[in-house]
Amino acid sequence: MQALLALSRGIDAINLRMGRAVSWVTLLVVLVSAGNALVRKFFHISSNAWLEMQWYMFGAMFLLTAGYTLLKNDHVRVDIIASRLSRRAQVWIEIFGLLFFLMPACLLIMYLSWPVFMDSYLSNEHSSNSGGLIRWPVKLLIPVGFALLVLAGLSHLIKCAGFLLGRCRDPREREGAKSAEEELAEEIAREAQAREAVAVREPDNKGR
């Protein structure tokens, strides 16, 4: 089990580095998008290459960080029923989902997307738009992104087994920060409390 947990830590390190690297791509997308908008607005100049670069990077942001998202437990969970079960039962459900849903779907997409990438690479496919970019790099993002997600799923599976054996903590726990769903729920609750406070004050003001 220790060897598997070491493998899990190695996989996590890969996805962690990928997530940090792609965070810089996010900044680059913002700069390129703003630059394109300004050039079109003030100089009436447009470039298909720069426009396509935007959606290349946009695709990289989502595809290459899927594994990082799973690592950080930032994916959406619908635990209406599972949340009522014991922690061990929830982890068993997690294992079932990984083995019968996540992993098969990711492996199938990798299998189907690889020939598409190879055809594009061997033919040196270019965009049909004037001045557009070559196509195979963006098509390579699909199998690579899902390969990273498969690795993240394998790491998560190892940690789930480790938790059931008492070798590691629950892999579904987040490290300190609250999830986006929790933050949204708290924001909705604060807004509801603010509306209630306003509703209580209004009758008092009218009475005066």
From TrEMBL:
Keywords: Cell inner membrane, Cell membrane, Membrane, Transmembrane, Transmembrane helix, Transport. The chain crosses the membrane at residues 21-43, 55-71, 91-114, 140-165. Part of the tripartite ATP-independent periplasmic (TRAP) transport system. It is a multi-pass membrane protein. It is found in: Cell inner membrane. Residues 30-159 form the Tripartite ATP-independent periplasmic transporters DctQ component domain. The complex comprises the extracytoplasmic solute receptor protein and the two transmembrane proteins. Belongs to the TRAP transporter small permease family. This is TRAP transporter small permease protein. InterPro entries: DctQ, TRAP_DctQ.
